[in-house]
Amino acid sequence: MYPTIRTLLLSNAHCWDADSKRSCQDLFEKLDANKDGRVDVAELRAGLKAMGIFRQGAAQKIMSSGDQNNDGSLDFNEFSNYLKEHEKKLRLTFKSLDRNNDGRIDASEIQQSLAELGLDISKENALKILQSMDIDGTMMVDWNEWREHFLLCPAHNLEEIIRHWKHSSVLDIGDSLAIPYEFTEEEKSSGRLWKQLAAGAVAGAISRTGTAPLDRMKVFMQVHSSKINPISLVGGFSRMIKEGGLSSLWRGNGTNVLKIAPETAIKFMAYEQYKKLLSSEGQKIETHKRFVAGSLAGATAQTSIYPMEVLKTRLTLGKTGQYTGMFDCAKKILRKEGIIAFYKGYVPNLVGIIPYAGIDLAVYETLKNTWLTHHTNDSANPGVLVLVACGTISSTCGQLASYPLALVRTRMQAQASLDTTDQPSMSNLMKKIVAKDGFFGLYRGILPNFMKVIPAVSISYVVYEYMKTGLGISK
């Protein structure tokens, strides 16, 4: 029934010449339920639902793009102007996907286009995506079918919808170990990538600040909690507030935020270089090579900013008045312990990148392909909740695998001030923790770490989308 309604409402609704004005007017009048000459968000949402368009936030995005006078509704001129501009973008994308210029898109062309975006899908999934747009049953999509499918979708094209599926480090959980975001050639040449990196950095800063108390609790429990000295969430927070007041819950957060920008930039630039080294010119990079390039880029970035990781841990564990700030902390460590102290815990940190990034990427790919297999008959667009759920689950699985190494890294960073003879190696420290607290001793502090994942991912996603809009790279 929904495809029939959509066809009746959208067919021939071209809006920028006199001959088609009547068709556009008909569509506008159908959406204008109370006949006041304006379409508000509620009417637009109801109209989209009647046409079978259930994408979360679609009505709001159309409204924000088309509402030129910011009065919260669309008049006919605003509505027709929105459709005019939107259709121009759809036409350009249709032509870019139509590789053989025969006026139709087939499954192989969809596969090829998505592969260039770094998203490998099976022929079966490509056919399912195609079927969601195919009206006449030919298993090919012509311009009219393409236009009808996307005309009232806020995403301009199939590439934009599927690009959401690319696992992205903008979903910041406070651990910069994910595979970097992969930008298209168009984004690189237009300069949009720097705006997107800036948006990701701001999203990460706000996300980490919002979850900083849980992050400090994680570090506190990693270092101080044991079988004979168990620390509960409530007890730990009480101790920290009693020692330094409410503001102490954010101790070390400044350094954690400051390292986002340089780490993101270094990781991106290194990732691009490693991809070139690992792939032949003009050919797409395979998933396993993308993982290797991402891991190497992560290692390069971590090597560059690792002293800030040590500073963040020391400030997080420091007592009130111990350090006046990041530079004071660095000066005291350098004077007392030497430059080597800034790389304590470096080995477990580097080793931890591989299980984290590998499992995170593998789980995300599995969840993505499962969703595409079961839902592409209706739409290829996953929606915000699905994206956040997939990002949360994959990040959590990655953390489970790499957490013991993260705990050992933090212990080594914290113990750097001890005498050299009292500083065990990575393997010896791990054995010591297991002997003293059992296997689960390697997971001290994982509860607050898990607790921060959902709010961190959610805050990152929301802030990132708002930042993209504010910077003019998303309408």
Automatic annotation (TrEMBL):
Keywords from the named record: Antiport, Calcium, Membrane, Metal-binding, Mitochondrion, Mitochondrion inner membrane, Repeat, Transmembrane, Transmembrane helix, Transport
Recorded GO CC terms: mitochondrial inner membrane
Lineage: superkingdom: Eukaryota
Localization (cell): Mitochondrion inner membrane
Catalytic reaction list: dAMP(in) + ADP(out) + H(+)(out) = dAMP(out) + ADP(in) + H(+)(in); 3'-AMP(in) + ADP(out) + H(+)(out) = 3'-AMP(out) + ADP(in) + H(+)(in); dADP(out) + phosphate(in) + H(+)(out) = dADP(in) + phosphate(out) + H(+)(in); Mg(2+)(out) + phosphate(in) + ATP(out) = Mg(2+)(in) + phosphate(out) + ATP(in)
The EF-hand domain, residue ranges: 19-54, 85-120, 121-156
Membrane topology: Multi-pass membrane protein
GO MF, any single term: calcium ion binding
Solcar repeat start-end pairs: 191-277, 285-370, 382-470
Pfam families referenced in this protein's UniProt entry, alphabetically: EF-hand_7, Mito_carr
SUBUNIT field: Monomer.
Family: Belongs to the mitochondrial carrier (TC 2.A.29) family.
Alphabetized PANTHER family for the sequence: SOLUTE CARRIER FAMILY 25
Designated name of the protein: EF-hand domain-containing protein
